[in-house]
User: Fold these one by one.
Assistant:
Number 1:
Amino acid sequence: MNLSLGKARIVFTAPGTSIQDAGRHHVASIGIPTAGVMDQKSYAWANHVLQNEENAAVLEISQPGLTLVFDHPTELSFAGAKVQIFLNGEAYNSGNTLLIRAGDEVKLGKFYSGRWLYLGIKSGFVTEKFYDSRSDFPFISRKFFRETGDILPYLPIDYSPQRNASPKWNTSWFEDEEVVAYRGPDWSLLSGELQQQLLKGSFRISTHSNRMGIQLEDLLPNTLPELPTNPVFPGTVQLSSGGKLMVLMRDAGLTGGYPRILQLSEDSISKIAQKRPGEVVRFHLE
Amino acid sequence: MKPSYIQITPNLGELLWNLPPSDELLALQLAYMDFLQSDWADELMSLRMGFTRISLQWKSPTSQEKFNRIVPNHQVSPKPLSKKVWEIPVCYSPELGEDLNELAKEKQILVEELIALHATPTYRIHFFGFLPGFFYLNGLHPLLHAPRKPIPRLSVPSGTVAIGGSQTGIYPRESPGGWHLIGQSPIVLFDPLRSPPVWAKYGDQVKFIPIDLAKFQSWSHDIPTFYLS
């Protein structure tokens, strides 16, 4: 048994790269947001293909250029955004798992579709845990995000897995426009006319979108009141007095005062996470 | 004062009271929180509180169905509220609270009057939200209610005391924010290396104690003192 940890060195990364897992669920009482992966569906897949535990930590990446060098053998998986991958400078097109030898360099090129790529590693990255989770989050974890020069520890493998067929890297599930939503707690404050506008309209993802929330560009003018501050969750759609629709995501605060008009299904949270600014969504009421 | 329960998604639901925020309602909410934590903890993914709601995130839809059936018959007695009053030093000054003068002007009162109105009441901590360690307080004098700014500031310094709508609070760390800034406290509201990282609990009370700039700058205690009311 090899007890020394493998190290993946970040030779280069653009902003927005972080270590994520399933997030923190038991510390809401002191105001700590859940954090965790933006797209849980792809995350589950990245761990599944490596036969990892469900909450193993992965790297979440939103921009091209990330370059990693590994000093011990391991196996990687890719899920989520469809991205061009280079192994030691050569294009790698053989599926969504990749065996790594000591010294190998993995580099990400162009993002063809989707917003977040999940890079899974055999047994998960073993960075420091805070409140039972490895998810990077400002002022909770020591790292707020990952930078060039950082080292990511992992458990090296001491065998050569045989894998004949690599599972398919499927992105079609996030490509259509429909997101499934339930009526939010304040749905009934909307007039029938506003409800229709919301369900018949199409809404563009704005550039003001990040791990905290996704703003939609098209407005829904309204005269709803501000409400007493109450709980919100990832997937809660809030409507501001200015008509802005805001889909709260994983790093959002735990409470809010704007009307909570919709709540997305778990799969649809993953789906909208993968939408890029300018792409369009339509709400389908469950 | 019995809550109703609404199912939002198969895994998410909410206990709601159609009442304005108050000590009486908080006492009921806290009794419900105790009940949920003792009897339903294994089936809950997370539990969150707001001024008039408790949200329950279930591990499975069956648990939610089961809970939904017991709610109408379940009785709780209000939980006696905490007697703890935390004394939080605040330096009210335009250097540390950029909107202090303007807010007083809008309200047509003197800055000294604004400070007195803010520092006189004891406020009740209802829950934590927004940011780690940010507590929501009830009890702001109606004269000080002020709609949130139309364009939020990109950065509000850690410790800033502010007013937004009918609420007042302290930013536990640097953050964007749309409230009116009236001063700053030298107290640390959230320290991830401390266990627990917050010193206050739901139901505790808070009183703001005005201090001058010199005292603010030389303040050396992270945790405030308290007395029992």
Number 2:
Amino acid sequence: MPDAHLAQQFDDPAQQREAAKLGMWVFLMSEILFFGGMFTAYITYRVDHPIAWVIASHHLDFWLGTTDTALLLISSLTMALAVHSAQEGSRWVTALFLTLTMILGLLFLGIKFFEYAKHYGEGLFPGFNFTYKGPYQREIFLFMSFYFTMTGWHAIHMIVGLGLLSGMLAITLAGKFSKAWHNPIVITGLYWHFVDIVWIFLYPCFYLVNTR
Amino acid sequence: MISKKTDIWVAVALLVLLVLTAWLSKVNLGAWNLAAAMLIAVAKALLVVIFFMEMKVSPRLMWLAAAMGIFWLGLLVGGVLIDVGTRVIVLPH
């Protein structure tokens, strides 16, 4: 039954898939502006406090941030391969790549929360435990506020992504996707890649501030 | 449809760019550090959009949707920077 999922307003499955992808892109546009607002505020304050930004950035863990980035980039590859496998209709390979993507996402979050705990312990967590004393105290407070807000919102998006992926895995294992219909996996893929792109910009903005 | 082989090469390119940007951050390039980091981030984002998000094989309408997202972002950031960048401090100091 290749047409079981074809809604009546569409001519064929290809048109239905394109409509679904376009809908996701429109949603992602609103997400660009959601994160864009925070990036705009970040840029404004960085222009005002260039030296403090460099000092504050050294309080973050360069290697953990770099590992985070590598994990997410690889998870985008496994996501793309999951979409490929779904297009080819191979159920078990799709399930395998979805699982790998989820494992990489979970590892990312694990490292992220380890970093949060570390900064909490160091007294660099604005609003909860901020005991940093030294030059540029107020500016470092500001930097860390941006860090927790922006990477926090990113982490929330990752958690949503993991939820979507578990749904996709369940549907894949139940054998409900086919070569003709697997749109939800394609859409979930777009979302996952978008969240990866947000991190691609967060990484240099927080971990790589080494010169003015 | 983009081939699996292409996707793997894109991932390799992304990881090479990651190593490059991490290394460059340890080299003092002055003002060029920020420019290099941002250019590499944009290059990585483009690779993800064009290949992983299959923009390469998507209809023009999808290109337009993504481009409009970037356009609105430009207005948001640009507009705020024009304001902040041209403020004159009138308080005594």
